[in-house]
Each structure stands twice: as C-alpha cells, then as structure tokens.
Amino acid sequence: VAIARALANDPELLLADEPTGNLDSRNAQRILELFAGLAADGQTVVMVSHDASARAVASRCITLQDGRIVTENAGA
C-alpha cells in the first residue's frame, strides 16, 4: 500500500527505504521489477536496501560503512 500511495502522484523522485524488507521473495522480486520499469521509463528511484538482490536492478550502487562511502560503481 505504501508503494502505491507513493506512486499515486507520479513523483519525479521516488525514495524507497527498505522496500523489500518485509516481503516474501516473490513479492520482493515484483517490487524490484516495478522499480526497474519505472527507472527505464525515466523515473528517478533512490532505494536503500540491505537486500543484495536489489543490486541486480540498480544502475548505480553506493555502499556505506560506518556512515562513509566505501564503494561506488555501476549496478547491474
């Protein structure tokens, strides 16, 4: 419901904090595919996640450790 509400007004920037955290693997994959589709259509999606599979749909990945950037590279 939170994701649908966030998308209702077609925002230019979508901020997603652990969007797959409480989902089973099937629904988590659906959300990642949705975000990938939105990004492909020009939507800016910024996602924070501990889920390593989220990297598969990212165009850019930034890894933080102790509040500092330790790696920054292209995603999938």
How does this structure look, described?
The chain is an alpha+beta fold. The chain has one domain (2-74): Rossmann fold, CATH 3.40.50. 29% of the residues lie in helices and 30% in strands. It has two helices and four strands, in the order H-E-H-E-E-E. The protein has a two-stranded parallel ribbon with strand order 1-2. The protein is globular, with a radius of gyration of 12 Å. The N and C termini lie far apart (27 Å).
Question: What structural class is derived from the secondary structure elements?
Answer: alpha+beta
Low-confidence stretches: none
Strand neighbour order, sheet with most strands: 1-2
CATH topology: Rossmann fold
Number of domains: 1
From the alpha carbons, calculate the radius of gyration and give it in angstroms: 12 Å
Task: Give the SSE order as H and E letters.
Answer: HEHEEE
CATH superfamily: P-loop containing nucleotide triphosphate hydrolases
Shape: globular
- Regarding quaternary structure, what we see is single chain
Main β sheet profile: 2 strands, parallel
Report the count of strand segments.
Answer: 4
CATH top level assignment: Alpha Beta
Q: Helix count? A: 2
CATH architecture: 3-Layer(aba) Sandwich
- The average pLDDT is 92
Helix content: 25-40%
Question: Which percent range describes the beta-strand content?
Answer: 25-35%
End-to-end Cα distance, whole Å, is: 27 Å
Q: What's the arrangement of secondary structure elements?
A:
Layout: H1 2-7, E1 13-17, H2 25-40, E2 44-48, E3 60-65, E4 68-74
